[in-house]
Amino acid sequence: MNPRALLTERFEAALEACGSDAPALVQSASKPEFGHYQTNGIMAAAKRMGTNPRDLAAKVVGQLAIADIAEGVEIAGPGFINITLSDAFLAEHLDVDAPLVQPNADVQRVVVDYSSPNLAKEMHVGHLRSTIIGDAIARVLEALGHTVVRQNHVGDWGTQFGMLLAYLRESGAESSLLSDLEEFYRAAKQRFDNDPEFAQRSRSMVVALQGGDADARTQWQHFIDISLAHCQAVYDRLGTTLTLADVRAESAYNDELPSIKDALAARGLLTESDGAQCVFLDEFKRKDGTPLPVIVQKSDGGYLYSTTDLAAIRYRADQLDIDRVLYFTDARQALHFRQIFAVAAKARFKPQSMSLEHMPFGNMLDKNGKPFKTRAGSVVKLTELLDEAEQRALALVEQKNPEIDTAEASRIAKAVGIGAVKYADLSKHRTSDYVFDWDLMLAFEGNTSPYLQYAFARIQSIFRRGEIDAERLTGKAMPVADVERDLAVVLLRFQEVLEQVAAEGLPHLLCGYLYELATKFTRFYEQCPILTAEGEAKQNRLRFSRRTARTLKQGLNLLGIETLDRM
Ligand code: ARG
Asked: What residues form DSSP beta bridges with 297?
């Protein structure tokens, strides 16, 4: 149930009856005195019609059929219309055990292209953001009924693989050597930089690999398998939904690359420039006004990241029949995506109806506002970061609860520590840089994961103390007190928030929502004692509690965060 969508429909029908096709612009009320929702579209509609906005508002209200939804409709200021939902409407949609989310009317097939590390190196904090945000969006899309195809577009085909393979061969192809990919990369790079003969071997290794040499291919596969196993270990620890089956690597498009070039040439889009095959589009120029190419093939015959991305678009359109593709990478790739989206459209690699959306994100910074690095200045490895999260959470859990047994403590610490890292990332606006701060993210107050996990556990403890089987509660939560009405309105916004998260790729909206819900619940709990109440009042408050707990649990789950019955 999405009251905002329902009100929008009704208001737009009323506007139409008044001769306007303007959008109603219904929103949650910005202040309690404006009711629950407000309609902001009347002024613009009146302007277009050349009439007085307050008069139009009165006419629209006259045409409006919302007696089944609202108990109060009020014209305010220059032509706003404020709506107060009726208790009967709220209760009608607050059945304790009805599904909280309904599938959208028109569902899509969506590729979520996320995580996508380069396998030459270990995953670092930049991939943390892509992995966490992309996974949350994939889950939300699925909850809304869309078909999601997860694609982990790992980089496994660049020139650096020649160097890694040459080093792997030289050092005896021991998998134990690869337990630390960063170290392995560094060692290989050092050989490459200091030994021309090694560098030469590396280059011929790339040629052999890309030319299909069986030995090179086997060794490369060995390297990729180990490297992907590292990634999967991180995904599992993070509790993300990615599996090895979601890997659709750059190399998977290798055989398609020549035909991408041919297709571009056939459409007259290809130009040779300094021996390279390029696409020049008018809309892309350098600062000095000179044209900026998308290079499709280098002068030595090699294809590039862009070529592979064009092939991926064509594959997703032709083979997967996809309506929408979301790419989660940091903001530095914005130009790359604008360019390949434009080329893909010009070359008709995608139908017009297919939507390609880059979902950029900002950097993770340390407390001093500097890019997040280790003390030694290298990138922070994800495994180490997650170890630290769990250790810090464990210390907190043991400090709050000295009696707790070790196994229980480490289980809680894992959920709290990993949850905190994920939530800290998800709760900031995706496009802004964010400061990674252990103390803030692990705080039990404020908009944090521990606070929300605790809010959920507290409701569970109410049921335990009252010896109530929450699963067996039935009926609808009916608002009686004002705090219940406030809580009811927030509970009913869940669907709307998820739809917005899915449309814009902004998980922080869901975080903010869950935080508001937990806050509203606390106020309700303070003013409406539950276990000491009696009869129908008690049942009704239990229903509100159950509905809130379910919403918190599902909401956190969609963010990829575990809930605990006890903390
Ligand atoms: N491998 C790239 C990187 O680590 C990200 C790939 C994103 N996806 C894509 N289809 N280009 O920066």
From this structure: 277, 303
- Give the list of residues 6+ apart from residue 172 with CB closer than 8 angstroms, or none: none
**pLDDT tens-place string over residues 90-100:** 999 999 999 99
Tell me the pairing of strands 324-327 and 291-297.
unpaired
Burial 228-249 (b: 16+ CB within 10 A, else e): bebbbebbebbbbbbeeebbbb
Alpha carbon distance 499, 400 (integer Å)? 38
For residues 178-212, b (16+ Cβ closer than 10 Å) or e, as one string? beebeebbeebeebbeeeeebeebbbebbebbbee
Among protein residues, the one with the nearest Cα to ligand 1's atom 5 is: 116
Q: Give the mean pLDDT of 433-460.
A: 94
- Closest to 260 in 3D by CA, of 335, 313, 208: 313
Residue owning the nearest CA to atom 4 of ligand 1: 117
Measure the CA–CA gap between 295 and 277, rounded to whole angstroms: 6
Q: Encode pLDDT of 5-63 as tens digits.
A: 999 999 999 999 999 999 999 999 999 899 999 999 999 999 999 999 999 999 999 99
Q: φ, ψ for residue 153 (rounded to 5)?
A: -85, 70
Q: Which residue has the tokens 């009347």?
A: 42
Question: What pLDDT was estimated at residue 168?
Answer: 85
Listed in order, strand segments (DSSP E) in 152-304 are 270-273, 276-285, 291-297
Token couple for 320: 């997967």
Higher pLDDT, 125 or 199: 199
- Ligand 1 surroundings by CB, under 6 angstroms: 113, 116-118, 153, 155, 309, 312, 327, 329
Interatomic CA distance for residues 425 and 391, integer angstroms: 19
CATH of domain 3-85: 3.30.1360.70
Mean pLDDT of 181-199: 90
* Atom number in ligand 1 closest to CA 337: 11
Atom nearest to 330 CA in ligand 1 = 12
Q: What one-character-per-residue DSSP string does 20-84 give?
A: ------EEE-SSGGG-SEEE--HHHHHHHHTS-HHHHHHHHHHH---TTTEEEEEEETTTEEEEE
Q: Which of 436, 443, 448 is nearest to 368 (CA)?
A: 436
The answer to whether the CB of 379 falls within 8 A of the CB of 120 is no
Please give the distance, rounded to the nearest whole angstrom, from the Cα atom of residue 133 to the centre of ligand 1.
14
Greater confidence, 174 or 205?
205
Q: Domain spans of the chain? A: 3-85, 159-243
Distance CA(41)–CA(438), nearest Å, equals 43
Average confidence (pLDDT) over 270-278: 94
Say yes or no to pLDDT of 466 above 70.
yes
